[in-house]
Amino acid sequence: MLLRVPLARRPLSPKTCARLVASTYTPSTTWRSGSSIARKQPSAVASTRLVHNPRLARAHANSPYTSQRAQIRHATNLASRTAINPPSNVPAENQQLYASLDRLKDIASDYVNQSRLQLALRGLETSRPTVRIGLLGLGRDGDVAARKLARVLLADALGDEGQWEKMLKQPSQDGKPLLLRYGAEDDIPRMNPLVNELNIPSRVLEKNNLEILITTLNTPSGPNITADPSGLAEAILVPPLQTPVASSGRTGFVRYPVHKAIVVGEGIQGCMDFGRLSSALEATPLGVTGAEQDLIQVALSVPRDSRRTQTNDTGLISPVDIEQAGLALDLFRQDVANGAIFNSKWQASNIQAIIKFIASDPIDPVTGDSVGLRPTVQAHIRSTLDSAADAIALSEQVANNAVISNSIPDQKRQEISQAISAWAQHAHTDLQVSLANALDSRSWRRTTWSRLLWRVDDVGVASEEVLRSHWLLDAESTLAFLAGRIEQAGFFRSRVPQPTTADLLNTHALTAKVAQTGGIDIFHSRPWPLAIHFTRQKLLHTLVPSLQARAQALLAQSLTTIGATSALGVWLYIATSGTMLAESGAIAALGLVWTLRRLQKKWEGERETWAAEVREHGRVVLSEVEDVLRTVVRENERGVLRQTDIEDWQRAREALKEVKRALGDVEEVEEKVQEIGVKV
């Protein structure tokens, strides 16, 4: 029930407000207009719309100016069902799905299309959601063809031609998209900077609760048409609308999502324009697949006046004849007797297939509401979820490709690993051969036990020569070449420079002075592993002095033993006044032989032990260097996905699963309700 309530230009008095509240009517939101329409609502709702600030109300109640200066805040009730911020009143059966979608908006904001998700949320806020159909003109004359198609889809053959039909026959004057809504033709549409709105008293719009957006399809052309096929479906279901930017005078683009889209092409040019899109739309996995198959349709207007041209629908494409449908409509309006001709031409035009596409949702004939959640809204939500899942998979694939591109190929790693194996084998062979040659050299033979008495000081020199001239020299030189090859392969590109000892001790001035005076860089760093060099220096400072000290100790013990036995023999000779000369000589000879034998045994054992330790240290250092090189080749420059990205993908997928479970619960409830209705 509608009442026209005149409003004065001055503010309403409290008595007037109370009278309006008691009569359960609310004033219009248009404050300055002379008259407006107030809708009948419950008194509780009306009172909440007229309640002002209580603190100000108490202060103004005692004021002499209260009757003239009452402050009332009026709330609007004219928001569109698909507006950006409509009043939220989610039905109980949709609350779980609504909450999961709203959570998805926050968690997977980088992967889900926010425009389509917002449209899905608006569809869940009411039990009778409005479905927005997009008629997207393709090519130069696509907008005209889309307007003509909208006319034949929405026109009433039993009624006279309306003014809105004449407007749709003409091309757009300002180039702005056109939004068709159900309403009285004489209603003044709202001002919208994005689209021109037109109210149409169409039974199709009213019965199916539809609104139709007429615009052009903005897609890339030429060889780049299939460069990004995943964006074609998004460009169709979320067509961009031009909007002027007041500050710069240039135009921008605003995404205006639709539930369903019909791509309209006319004539040969339209077919050619669609031909550049057909392969991407049908052959690519991210073009039109899954839930999007029920949301996108292509209507190509071609002559269908003969049986030869009356082809059937081929899945995505529906050939229609808009001109023939308009002619049939005009003939039937001229004379009802042309019903047979109208039926023949109407069937031949195949317009009924497009009507079936836009009005495919079952509607309760009694209440006019959809039976459960509208299938179009469900398909729209599933399509949005599929697009989000594809976006997550694409993001993960791009990240993996980036990791692979920034990593060294496995083939290169295998080649370097084989080179390391060859070096290790050569180094162990070099250790055995070079050490055997060193122990058989002339300088080392000078340290035998028989020459130890006069060559004891040469033990340190001989052992040092073995280490400096024969111990892993060839292996160290080939290691330098191998390290250069590894560095050339790029295994040290992302190496973080570590502070050296010189940096920590601030010894740059000292090293510069030493280099200036002596020409020696004491902190020279070789660009290859220095384990062999450090191990050699360690052996020179540990094993060589110990061997030298052991030789001197054994020689001193031997000389002491020989001296003691000789003194014992002399003492026995003197004590016996020369009568036991043989016995005295025997004691001295026995001491000498036993001492020399002990010296031979001990010293040869020391030499063998020293050689074994040198050999073992060589094996250990070669194994360590090989392990280090293999670790570098195996782990360095191998990209790893960031843990934050992995967690984001996991959270987004969990949010998608939650929405799908909630959507499945809604569908299950609808099936049970339908089963109960059938039984009744």
UniProtKB/TrEMBL annotation:
It comes from the Eukaryota. Residues 417-619 form the Mmc1 C-terminal domain. Transmembrane segments: none annotated. Pfam families: Mmc1_C, Mmc1_N. InterPro entries: Mmc1_C. This is Mmc1 C-terminal domain-containing protein. It comes from Aureobasidium melanogenum (strain CBS 110374) (Aureobasidium pullulans var. melanogenum).
